[in-house]
């Protein structure tokens, strides 16, 4: 210490000149979300959580599944009554259930009976927003992309209220889906933006989905256990 030769002189600083090594690497990634995880780390984590949640959902018993569907239907009725005076006159975007999602088709048919206009999502291209085609009970269907049934019509509508199926969700109302980014892209582009209601099982709750910049928060999350 204190030698005359500046080249190999060492000094004791109060703290290291650079603290970078002590914070998460994601901190410096401009693509990192609020979680601070890099986009890459977050995507890998999501893939794993998605698989775990889908396996848990597939293992749900039939009785629990049906009980959840009944509770969801009742809660959705409450939401529509409280926030939209029932929602008659507004187009409600639903979904045709796939991969263990709650089957709300019976409920959608009952809404139609009350005068509610309904629509279902249609994938037009892998990286495009969803569009919505009108649906009523008994409507002719055709297989769409990913083999998901879609209304067999060329008509298109804009839902003002949109049910968004969840694989995972968090208390900040961020969602995880199947990884196509379809609902994020759709909500980002829709004008006027519909009131987006995430619909899924309570078991899909995560402490955080580690949101990325492209993730659109939903307006409400409804599960069999309550409304978030
Ligand atoms: N019932 C329902 N309908 C819906 C959706 C939904 O989540 N639920 N969608 C909501 O978006 C759209 C369809 N989205 C889908 C997105 C991905 C895959 C899919 O099979 N993905 C591949 C992996 C793709 C990849 O990683 O590149 C897979 O899971 O094997 C299927 C449907 C429109 N209709
Ligand atoms: N508004 C957007 N514009 C362009 N790309 C987007 C947009 N939103 C999402 N993406 C892309 O979609 C991909 C999938 O996103 P994410 O993992 O959040 O899907 P997801 O919400 O689980 O899927 P889905 O909505 O289909 O169920 C991401 O790689 C992201 O870059």
Automatic annotation (TrEMBL):
Cofactor(s) named in the record: Mg(2+)
The record lists the catalysed reaction(s) as: (6S)-5-formyl-5,6,7,8-tetrahydrofolate + ATP = (6R)-5,10-methenyltetrahydrofolate + ADP + phosphate
Q: Which GO terms describe its biological process?
A: folic acid-containing compound biosynthetic process; tetrahydrofolate interconversion
Keyword list (alphabetical) reads: ATP-binding, Magnesium, Metal-binding, Nucleotide-binding
Which EC numbers does the record give? 6.3.3.2
Any one Gene Ontology MF annotation carried by this entry is: 5-formyltetrahydrofolate cyclo-ligase activity
Extract the SUPFAM superfamilies matched here: NagB/RpiA/CoA transferase-like
TM regions (residue ranges) = none
Q: Which NCBIfam families match?
A: MTHFS_bact
Per the record, the similarity remark reads: Belongs to the 5-formyltetrahydrofolate cyclo-ligase family.
Q: Which PANTHER family match?
A: 5-FORMYLTETRAHYDROFOLATE CYCLO-LIGASE (PTHR23407:SF1), ATPASE INHIBITOR/5-FORMYLTETRAHYDROFOLATE CYCLO-LIGASE (PTHR23407)
- Name the chain's protein: 5-formyltetrahydrofolate cyclo-ligase
**Species assigned in the record:** Paracoccus isoporae
Ranked from the top, the taxonomy reads:
Bacteria, Pseudomonadati, Pseudomonadota, Alphaproteobacteria, Rhodobacterales
């Amino acid at each position: 210490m204190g030698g005359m030769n500046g080249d190999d002189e060492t000094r004791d600083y109060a703290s290291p000149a650079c603290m970078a090594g002590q914070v998460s690497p994601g901190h410096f990634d401009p693509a990192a979300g609020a979680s601070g995880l890099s986009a890459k780390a977050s995507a890998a984590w999501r893939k794993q959580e998605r698989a775990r949640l889908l396996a848990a959902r597939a293992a749900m018993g039939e009785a629990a599944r049906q009980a959840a569907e009944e509770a969801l239907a009742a809660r959705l009725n409450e939401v529509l009554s409280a926030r939209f005076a029932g929602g008659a006159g507004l187009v409600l975007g639903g979904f045709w259930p796939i991969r263990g999602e709650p089957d709300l088709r019976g409920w959608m048919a009952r809404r139609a009976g009350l005068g509610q206009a309904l629509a279902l999502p249609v994938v037009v291209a892998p990286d495009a927003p969803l569009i919505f085609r009108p649906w009523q009970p008994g409507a002719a269907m055709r297989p769409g992309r990913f083999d998901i049934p879609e209304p067999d019509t060329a008509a298109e509508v804009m839902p003002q209220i949109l049910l968004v199926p969840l694989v995972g969700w968090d208390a900040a109302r961020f969602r995880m889906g199947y990884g196509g980014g379809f609902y994020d892209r759709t909500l980002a582009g829709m004008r006027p933006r519909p009131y987006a209601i995430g619909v899924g099982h309570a078991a899909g709750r995560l402490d955080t989905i580690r949101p990325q910049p492209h993730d659109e928060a939903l307006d409400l999350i409804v599960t069999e256990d309550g409304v978030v």
